[in-house]
Amino acid sequence: MSRVTRIKGFADMFPPESDVFTRMQDCARAVFSRYGFMELRTPVLEFAELFSRSIGSETDVVQKEMYTFSDRKGRSLSLRPEATAGVMRAFLDASLFSREPVSRLFTMGPMFRYERPQLGRMRQFHQINCECLGSDSPVADAELIAMLLLFLADLGVKDLTLKINSLGCAECRPRYRAALAAYLAQVDQSTLCADCGRRVLTNPLRVLDCKHPACKALTAQAPKILDCQCPDCGRHFDAVLAFLRVQDVGFEQDHRLMRGLDYYCRTTFEVVSGAIGAQAAVAGGGRYDGLVKTLGGPDIPGVGFACGMERLAFLLDKKQRLRPDFYLLALDATVQLQVFVLGQKLRAAGLSGLLNFTPAGFKSLMRQAGRSGARYCLIIGQNETAAGLVTVKNMNNGVQNAMPEADVFHFLQAGIFHD
């Protein structure tokens, strides 16, 4: 019988890659909690209508990329292609809008899109999302961006560029859409890529965001959306930029920046890196003031971002693996029970570690300890047992100490603290 293999576009993740994801998640929880954000966990499966209503029925995501199927009752269900719509649905189901003026929520987990697997984007990919619901103030936009940049800085990511634009609102964006459509109608559209050839009629704003060289050249002289904005949107965007400047946050205004989902309005932004090729965006988001109402709720404003964990992982040091505190060696079967009990005591006290299950030669056991990445190797054999001692070896510098078992925990704790 042939072996079953993994599905194309879906990846298994072992250390050190899984360690990097854990580090990202731990850092996100630490930073976001400083801003009052709370973690929300939503299902990976939703009614397909949720995404067609929120993302937009003419978007590439809904048209070509969603995993959609019927269940046994004939209901159309989809694996979530993005997180924001599910957060909005949960926000409405729980009536959070009636309990607090502003809700600050973050989520982490897998998303699913049927598209060509590429560097940093698989068919199952992972995102960290933050959503701030209830305020239309430019302060909320600027604070969210500042939080994102602090998160990336705490991870140690450098050489990033913040790109920002404003998409206007339901009042002024139709004017820009008409101006852009008129411009595109006058140029030679035969050089557009296949996707943009369709977008000219269905979603012309997305033509500006295309990375295809011919499409970029064709739209180089296209009208700019900021020139068509109403006074309210202009003031809002100017205020966002002012709050960023007062924090010394560098940014580039990019009139091509549109994002791929229809629910965005006003502020939109991306954080990009030059270190991961054409798919340069590691995070992006913006304001979506009409989204909650679109889904049947009250007219509540919101702003948020999504951070692609696979792309971000390319920028992180994978050598920073999660190291066990100790590797506990039983040199022969006569001390196995003693080693087992000591290992349990150290773990119960808050340390992490491994122990060998079967005795082997000393050199082989030390190789096992080295491969584990443990900070310390604890060695117990018949000689140690007879003397009532444990040999403790620092795996960083090779220094060994023999000490009573009762002293091991405090010795390890002090050494790990000074690492």
Automatic annotation (TrEMBL):
- A Pfam family cross-referenced in the UniProt record is tRNA-synt_His
Q: Which GO terms describe its biological process?
A: histidyl-tRNA aminoacylation
Record the organism. Answer: Candidatus Desulfovibrio trichonymphae
**UniProt name for this protein:** Histidine--tRNA ligase
A single GO cellular-component term on record:
cytoplasm
PANTHER family attached to this UniProt entry: HISTIDINE--TRNA LIGASE, MITOCHONDRIAL-RELATED, HISTIDYL-TRNA SYNTHETASE
Asked if Electron transport is a keyword of the record, the answer is no
Keywords on this record?
A: Aminoacyl-tRNA synthetase, ATP-binding, Cytoplasm, Ligase, Nucleotide-binding, Protein biosynthesis
Where is this chain's protein located in or outside the cell? Answer: Cytoplasm
* Record gene name: hisS
Say where the protein is mainly found.
cytoplasm
What Gene Ontology molecular-function terms does this entry list? Answer: ATP binding; histidine-tRNA ligase activity
The entry's family comment says: Belongs to the class-II aminoacyl-tRNA synthetase family.
